[in-house]
Design goal:
This protein has about 240 residues and is α/β, with parallel strands linked by helices. It has a single domain, classed as Rossmann fold, CATH 3.40.50. Helix content is about 40%, strand content about 15%. The strands form two sheets. The chain has a four-stranded parallel β-sheet. Helix 10 links the parallel strand 5 and strand 6 (about 230-240). The longest helix has 17 residues, at about 105-120. The radius of gyration is 18 Å and the shape is globular. Residues about 1-10 have low confidence and may be disordered. It binds zinc ion (ZN) (2 copies). One zinc ion binds near residues 69 and 70. One zinc ion binds near residues 57, 60 and 66.
């Protein structure tokens, strides 16, 4: 993990959490084995589908250099940090976070993103964090936005200020999951609005899963229209496109 992250670590909060966990030994979320103070045990951590050698712009497999697609048709965002490919058992963990209220997993997801960012060799820290918003109705139904929960932890750990409001969904869209890949960009066009002044700032846009990247691309456009100089996606998992 890079220096700015470790130095900004909220050690008091961390040790209080650790103390609480010591008192109640954890069971690994995945194998139910004893995992000490961790949500996922060391063995399961090693077996996770960590994403490596991905395109630094879109996080698809590329051998580590900017992929042909990003070279020929650069997306509105400038970089993507994705900890994992969206595969078993990451899909299960994210499902628990999103639909079963397992908010402790937000902390675990945030740590995974920070570890991956630290390993990525990416440059200086972003100036602000923003979570990709949910539609109002969906947030009301769920009671929380998992992306915001992850972003809060990243903010506390890294010292990068989180802007909890200001980027919003102005148009409810059918869930992206219900649509064929080719229609997803059209579906989210005009879905976001931003009333922040982000002049000259580098923004990290936090989300749980990046599928086609259509929502993040649309949000990045709006953030840049609000002045952002650069937008990085910080996501837990990247869906790899279906093989042709
Ligand atoms: Zn385990
Ligand atoms: Zn790419």
């Amino acid at each position: 993990m890079s220096n700015f992250l470790t130095s900004a670590f909220d050690s008091v909060r961390r040790s209080a959490l650790d103390a609480a966990r010591m008192a109640l030994p954890q069971r690994c979320e995945l194998c139910a084995g004893v995992s000490g103070t961790d949500l996922v045990c060391g063995g399961c951590m090693r077996d996770l589908p960590w994403l490596a050698r991905a395109c630094p712009v879109c996080a698809l497999p590329s051998g580590g250099s900017v992929c042909g697609q990003c070279l020929s048709d650069p997306p509105p965002f400038d970089a993507t940090i994705a900890a994992f490919s969206y595969a078993f058992p990451i899909d299960r963990l994210i499902h628990s976070l999103k639909y079963q209220g397992r908010l402790a997993l937000a902390e675990w997801c945030a740590d995974a993103i920070l570890v991956q960012r630290g390993n990525s060799g990416a440059g200086s820290r972003p100036d602000r964090l923003i979570a990709l918003p949910l539609a109002v109705a969906r947030q009301r139904e769920r009671g929380y936005n998992q992306a915001l929960e992850i972003a809060r932890v990243i903010g506390a750990r890294s010292g990068v200020p989180l802007l909890p409001r200001g980027l919003s969904r102005v148009r409810a869209t059918p869930p992206q999951a219900a649509l064929p890949w080719a229609e997803r960009a059209k579906n989210v066009r005009g879905a976001f609005a931003c009333d922040l002044d982000l002049s000259g700032l580098t923004v990290a846009l936090v989300d749980d899963v990046m599928t086609t990247g259509a929502s993040l691309a649309e949000a990045a456009k709006i953030l840049k229209a609000s002045g952002a100089a650069s937008v990085e996606n910080w996501v837990v998992a990247r869906t790899l496109p279906p093989a042709d």
